[in-house]
């Protein structure tokens, strides 16, 4: 693309004239050439987002999380089980629409689970309702390692948010992390979020409370071949005591106990969570 910048006689010194020219060129660039953080910030605040998802931002910090993972507008991203609400879909799908690729790895189409079928149907309806933002969304199936969530070695990022406890309960952590490794290209990034269990307590192998120790999650990824890169504390919540009769689901947004101690749980807020970043090493 050639950008014509009008020139006029100036008394600026040559270095300042060059700086002024660069500023003018940057201002003329289209949105696709803007900094990824600026695009993400605009989409986080965008009208395509539902109010139900937006009110959770103080606990989920979407701009900071996606920036930490390093997702760019030209990335090939697979999100595992986005659900009917599509919290991350509302941001990632329009962000990747023009130059990247967003794949929703939904639950297995033939699953006997009513919850899976409800999520799949809700996601399908959400995508169909907004073709301007979601018209290029790709959909694949996820069920541990029983399907390819993307062509092998094709994805730049695989992202999963608060799912590990479910795979532990189903005995499918090895298959799930193996599927992520298979889908990613060498140098690709696995981004993980999960409810953080207490480091000094034994890990329930079925994670019935919903909490998973951070070192246990790192162990699952490393066993699949990933290398740990780092962590972010952006979704940490020191108010979360992690000792509730209904597990993590006592907290918002679920409030599984209904009105019982609701004010107490609302004051705690959403769970304490770790954010982990892994890389698939090059051969």
Automatic annotation (TrEMBL):
Signal sequence coordinates: 1-33
Gene3D superfamilies: Vaccinia Virus protein VP39
Entry annotated with the keyword Ribosomal protein: no
Keywords on record: Methyltransferase, Signal, Transferase
GO molecular function: methyltransferase activity
Biological processes per GO annotation: methylation
Protein name: Methyltransferase
Organism, as annotated: Labrys wisconsinensis
């Amino acid at each position: 693309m050639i950008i014509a910048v009008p020139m006029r006689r100036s008394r600026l010194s040559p270095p300042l004239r060059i700086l002024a020219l660069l500023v003018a060129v940057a201002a003329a660039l289209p949105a696709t050439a803007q900094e990824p953080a600026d695009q993400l910030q605009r989409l986080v605040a965008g009208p395509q987002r539902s109010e139900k998802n937006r009110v959770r931002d103080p606990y989920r910090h979407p701009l900071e999380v996606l920036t930490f993972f390093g997702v760019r507008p030209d990335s090939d991203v697979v999100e595992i089980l986005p659900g009917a609400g599509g919290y991350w879909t509302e941001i990632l799908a329009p962000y990747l629409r023009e130059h990247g690729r967003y794949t929703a790895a939904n639950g297995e189409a033939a699953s006997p689970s009513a919850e899976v079928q409800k999520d799949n149907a809700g996601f399908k309806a959400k995508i169909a309702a907004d073709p301007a933002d979601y018209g290029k969304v790709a959909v694949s199936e996820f069920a541990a390692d029983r399907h390819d969530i993307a062509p092998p070695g094709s994805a730049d990022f695989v992202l999963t948010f608060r799912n590990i406890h479910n795979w532990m309960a189903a005995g499918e952590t090895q298959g799930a992390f193996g599927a992520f490794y298979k889908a990613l290209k060498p140098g690709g990034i696995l981004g993980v979020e999960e409810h953080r269990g207490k480091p000094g307590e034994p890990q329930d192998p079925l994670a019935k409370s919903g909490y998973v120790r951070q070192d246990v999650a790192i162990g699952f990824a490393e066993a699949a071949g990933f290398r740990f890169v780092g962590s972010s504390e952006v979704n940490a919540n020191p108010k979360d005591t992690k000792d509730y009769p209904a597990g993590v689901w006592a907290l918002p947004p679920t409030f599984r106990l209904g009105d019982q101690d609701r004010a107490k749980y609302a004051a705690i807020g959403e769970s304490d969570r770790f954010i982990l970043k892994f890389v698939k090493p090059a051969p």
